[in-house]
Amino acid sequence: MVVSMEPNQPTTLKLSKEPKGEFISVLLKGKIDEDATTRPKKAGENQSYVIVSAVKFDSDNNQTLWSSKDWKVFLDDSGKHEMCKVEKHIKVDGYNSKSYMLSESDLALDRGLQPRKSDVPLSLSFLNMGEQPTALSVIANPNPLNENHGVIYALLLLCFLYSLIIFDIADRTFASLLTATLAIGVLCMLGDRPSLEKIISWIDMDTLMLLFGMMLMVAVLAETGVFDYMSVFAYHLSKGQPWFLVFLLCMLTVTLSAFLDNVTIIMLMVPVIIRLTECMGLRTTTVLICVAIFSNIGGALTPVGDPPNVIIATNKYVVAEGVNFPIFVIHMLPGVFFSIVFTWIFLYFSLRTKLYAGSEDQMRESIRNLTKTAAKFNAPTPSEEQLRRDILNRIEELKERYRRKQDARTFGLQPASNFIETLAEMEAKYKLKNKPLLVKCCIALTFAILLFILHSFPFMKGITLAWAAMLAAILLLILANKPDMDAVLDHVEWSTLLFFAGLFVLVEAISEMGLIDVVSDWTTSLIIGVDDEHRVIAAIMLVMWISAIFSAFVDNIPIVTMMLKLVIKVCSNDDLRLPLLPLIWAISMGVCFGGNGTLIAASSNVVAAGIANQHGYKITFFEFFKYGFPSMIICDVVGSIYLLFAHGLFQWH
Question: Taking CA 505 as the corner, what is the angle to CA 499 and CA 506, rounded to the nearest 5 degrees?
């Protein structure tokens, strides 16, 4: 409903129902200065505002019987801001009692107040304290969701999802969709039924578009044979030394992930890694986990390396602090560098005798999985028939490699005994199949990389990473002139896209239930409780570790949004006098490093698992957790020490 307000004239809006709880929810939309409303000390001296309060007003006697605390909503007098939304829970506990509270609006109107009982319904009061008429769109919910119950249900839903995935009870895509559906049902049960439009808005289309665009490009690129050729080149560089090969792959991934989206890099690297591990007899899933871990670490370095960093770097409050590409890199580089060093040491000593363990079992399992997949095509279409032939060819290749697998094992930095023979075989078998198509793919990839880089500049703000990937994919499809689009679309990881869609809906649903707000309020109260001398250190530690732990168990994209709101709210409190930038670096390290905590913590992990599954290899939750979670702890400890020295001891900010 739109409420029009004349200057200094009160306007009331009756609530549709009587509140049953302690709060009512009020959502306002209009020409509102959101910054000044959330941080009143930022408001101009003569800035217009509207006083909003819940009242019991007896119109017969022209008397206010009860009034809540006032909420000042500052208006945009400059016209610089677009239509903004602000929301607040107004406390109405005790509005039926004899007690009342004198509000600023009553003082302005010089009303006489007398406590008395009345059956007068509760209303919302709006008093325009500006000089010009104004209007706001108002949505009032007299019985918003009970956060105490909502938080319990949210935790139960997360436990249910993780039980399905950890114990391999159901496919992770089905588990995500099932839990998201249950979450919507719980919201309906709690009286906060979301509309279809709202549910669709919860899905992060930018992430899905980025993934879809890059999947299309990788599908076309795979036809050129470039992944096989890169496998031969990497094997030649490593001289058959397994740990040197793993080191090269991890460092290449770190470097590329810093300047390109790490999901893109994982899509390009995983097919190469699978070929190499099969040739050298290494445990495929173990090497993929190592590369995924370093992809998340490398993505933390720059504003474009990881989706959470993109959200941080484009936030208006962060930009206002002067954060640009070089500043971001300079502050993140020490923490990221030492995290790479200590994580590599940990992984080397953890895996130095396990790099081959179970590789034969994995190869046999891969053959079984691919055989089942090929058997599903009973009456295939032409595109499905081509896919079936590709799968059968791969099965034969794996069987041949399994039969010829050497019993000898290579540890440490000793080269493989059959390096020359294997290299000759690979060079003869794996060659570029379609050079003209490879040139077209390189043109499209160069176009995508150029747009990715330009995205960090203000004048190209409209070219998001998602649109860059989609435009590059469309360009490649035009250049390639594929006659059968179905064959390309068959290589898209639809299950991964559905998994993310379900996860986004689930996370937003549990946010509606109040879980994220409770964590935010709890963190804020802890920071406020620390004395001034140690407040910066305490804030850095709390922000980093809460970001890391929550990012490990909930997708890090909504977590970074929550933590940004939290630190901006805390830093806007003039009594606390907290600098914003140290907390921004703490969020970035926390959510990016936290992505290594579990298999579903970061997009790159899920994509790596999805592509591996296409090749017949299954990365389990427990296997990833065994190496990913300790790596997360190591990185966050290193990041914490760095931030404590840089901003706690030397006051770099």
Answer: 85
Taking only the tens place, the pLDDT of each residue in 513-524 is 888 778 777 877
**137, 29 contact by CB (below 8 A):** yes
CB burial readout 348-359, b (16+ within 10 A) else e: eeebeeebbeeb
Within 10 angstroms of residue 435's Cβ, the number of other Cβ atoms is 11
Helix, strand, coil % in the chain, rounded to nearest 5 = 60, 10, 30
What gap in Å lies between CA 399 and CA 554, rounded to an integer? 39
Give the separation between CA 33 and CA 17, rounded to whole angstroms. Answer: 30
Predicted TM-score (pTM) of this structure: 0.69
Proportion of the chain above pLDDT 70, given as a percent: 83
> Is residue 145 predicted with pLDDT exceeding 60?
yes
Strand 84-91 to 2-5 pairing: unpaired
Three-class SS state of 7:
strand
User: Measured in whole angstroms, how far is the alpha carbon of residue 507 from the centre of its chain?
Assistant: 10
H helices of 300-358, in order, are: 307-313, 316-320, 325-351
Summarize the confidence of residues 255-279 as an average pLDDT: 80
| Cβ-Cβ contacts under 8 Å for 126 (sequence gap 6 or more) | 3, 5, 10, 11, 12, 13, 50, 51, 52, 136, 138
How many Cα atoms occupy the beta-carbon half-sphere of 295 within 13 Å? 29
Say if residue 607 is exposed, middle or buried (CB neighbours under 10 Å; 0-12, 13-18, 19+): buried
